[in-house]
Amino acid sequence: MPTRIVILGSTGSIGRSTLDVVRAHPGRFEVVGLSAQSNTALLAVQAHEFNPKFVAVGGSNSAVNTGAFGGATVLQGPQAAAELAAHPCDLVLCAIVGAAGLVPVLNAIDAGNRVALANKEPMVMAGPLIMERARAKDVRVLPVDSEHNAIFQCLEGHSLDEVHRIHLTASGGPFYGKPRESLRGVTPEQAARHPTWDMGAKISVDSATLMNKGLEVIEAMHLFGLPLDRFKVVIHPQSIVHSLVEFVDGGMLAHLGVTDMRLPIQFALTWPERVKSPVARLDLAALAAITFAEPDFSEFPCLSLAFEAARRGGTAPAILNAANEAAVEAFREGRIAFLDIARVVEEVLESAPQGRELDLESVLAADADARRLARAAVETTGVT
Q1: Tens digits of residue pLDDT in 6-26
Q2: Which one of 43, 187, 230, 256 is at 20 to 30 Å from 333 when CA atoms are compared?
Q3: pTM of the prediction?
């Protein structure tokens, strides 16, 4: 029987790569659901190719032509993806950008669907809640992010008692090595030019500030059940080593591979099996160098803010994430400068009310408060 999959965010970078994996393995997967926020034209093309039973269109666009998606049942509105996530299937791959992925992930778990998690924000916002529900429902949450997927593979067959430290690698983004003051005039287009990965605009900006790596540390804490002091970020500009696990005996296991998201996506879709992949092979002899360096937290204040939110716990990571989403959106729209992203996030992290409770209501309330404060901070900051 084919593996029945639902892809949330099918028109984005991860979603398109997931469908590439499906194409490479005809008969192995059945796409039963696809969702998109607004790119209905591409969603319609995908629906005609893969013939899902359901498609979900986010937002409140009443002008959607439901006949454009072949014979699929069309779900519409802000809760459409969350509704689709609860449809019975074997695996829900969540690639919805930002906090919007939280409720769909919880719905998928509550329905007993295995989750392949490609967006880190839900785990940052409510990691303990997600993992508690997953344990209660006996649902496996499989990481798709290249770093977490690498850690997952390195940990297989080992207990957490054997782990000394986990090293998450970071490329450093497009501005690594440049003095911070030289980045005052950085444009959104420049910030989105990731040196080694082809990613969406928001995550590319997060990589430029290194907020992405801070969010990944928080996600990894919850995914793997280890405290903050067992994680370390290391700059690795070549993006060949996707992460490393250091064991108590001093040995390390590293995951190496080409910079192609189809590799971790396929592993999550076919786990616990390994099957032939369409991606290129890594030629070790052709590598000029593999280098590592400590990150300078003063040059990347967003990374420092993420570690601070992780230390505080409770709703602080949800506040961090919401403030960052709002600040990055303002930067991409030209309303604040690149260096102002960290300023806005810091202001919100220090001013937003924070609690220890982590039920869905408190997380969503913290998210809303942080976005309101971030919008106010953006207005008073302006472009500098």
Answers
A1: 999 999 999 999 999 999 999
A2: 43
A3: 0.93
